[in-house]
Target: Cytochrome c domain-containing protein
Amino acid sequence: MTRRSHRMPKSRALRAGRIALAMLAALAAASCERAAQNMYDQPRTRPYRQNPLFPDGSSARVPPAGAEPYASGPAADPSGGRLGRQEAERQAAADRAQAIPGPVTLAMLRHGRELYAGYCLPCHSPAGDGDGRVVRRGFPAPPSFGEARLLAAPDRHIYDVISDGFGVMARYGNRIEPADRWAIVAFVRALQLSQHAELAALPPQARARAQAALAADGAGDVHTGGADDAGAGGSGDARNREPTR
Ligand code: HEC
Model:
């Protein structure tokens, strides 16, 4: 056999080079996978297996006293860790607040309105006067948010009623996070304002519009907040009829 000393044709050389490169890449990838695999293969304990590390010989450990589960509550949403701690602290701070924390923004009011519609409106009604559908079907009527006592009540009272319940009203502290409860309080305040705003407190443009509307209506129709809301729950009255719409 004679040794062929002259070079391979160019195209064959190129192809050989490519194949060599591909093989190198494959090798590199395989060793990467090996390195990553080592993380799975490190010593660890399996559920329900014996483990000589602990005096009781069990791999199942009881959490230390006072341990907080990170898989539930506000910390669970943002996947635990630092974000979870921050969220838990944010909610704890909200829970300590004595009045609506921070400035009331439009976004907060919209959020509060959404929550109110889901959690409160069925009893308290869209206007907050306590004439919700559940009440029309026989549940005890809540007081109107427009009642003088509730107009004067501090924010924290409404927050506490949501958290702990009140009389026959159930508590929502186990379902609504503190920051969300404050959003509802802000919306309840807005509802109160919507039914009981002082003309003088309105911004000039809104005041002009309200005055024009009142003049057109004849001021006699203005809701006086009283007599018709009082006599609660006789069985034959309008409360027990479905609205005709
Ligand atoms: C199943 C009906 C129902 C739902 C839902 C409900 N409430 Fe009530 N709420 C009541 C009743 C009834 C009362 C009056 C309780 C009593 O005096 O025994 C009341 C009372 C209140 C009061 C007045 C407490 C006081 O000092 O007199 C506030 C404020 C209030 N609710 C806010 C809310 C908010 C906010 C929500 C939603 C998170 C809500 N409620 C959901 C029925 C309900």
